[in-house]
Amino acid sequence: MGLRKILTDKEPALHKVCKPVVNFDAKLFKLLDDMKETLQDANGVGLAAPQVGILRRVVLVDTGEEVLELVNPELLETDGEQEGAEGCLSVPGKYGLVKRPYYAKVRAQDRHGEWFECEGEELIARCFCHELDHLDGIVYTEVMERFLTEEELEAGE
Ligand code: NI
I want to staple 59 with a disulfide (CB 3.0 to 4.6 A). Which of 9, 16, 51, 131 is the partner? Predict the structure, then answer.
């Protein structure tokens, strides 16, 4: 176990397309365990491997009930639309207004390489889209409409 350093969006690693995971081995388990510890320490909802400097297709999403480990995730289906505040551990202290699907279904491999599907609405769907974007080198600030102002944040969006 160990905390990893979360990179900011000024680092080149946040803007690269990540490679698929091919080895489901102890190194991957360690990465997933470290990412979980790092995510929980930072009180985040999601974390992508490039945020800790690893250019592989791995993300974590905390649904509130469990921390999903998504290896080589793909967006299968989306529906509807939502517009709301979005933040990122790599863009500390800021929030942007981002349009995302209201619903998203994802297919991914677990740490042993088994494929599974998961789905979510609202915050979970937003998080799936945000984290999968990270794997293609996209930070939300590149797809947002604008940053939210202090007044909007104090008013609760
Ligand atoms: Ni992020």
Answer: 131
State the catalytic residue, choosing from 74, 122, 131, 150: 131
Q: Do residues 106 and 119 make contact, with C-beta atoms less than 8 angstroms apart? A: yes
Nearest Cα neighbor of 45 from 125, 106, 116, 117 is 125
Does this model's pTM top 0.70? My answer is yes
Give dist(CA 75, CA 66) in Å, integer.
20
| Distant-in-sequence, close-in-space partners of 100: CB < 8 Å, separation ≥ 6 | 81, 82, 83, 84, 86, 125, 126, 129, 130
Contact predicate 76/103, CB 8 Å: no
CA of residue 22 to ligand 1 center, whole Å: 23
12-155: what CATH class? alpha beta
8-state DSSP, 51: G
pLDDT digits (tens, 9 = 90+) for 113-147: 999 999 999 999 999 999 999 999 999 999 999 99
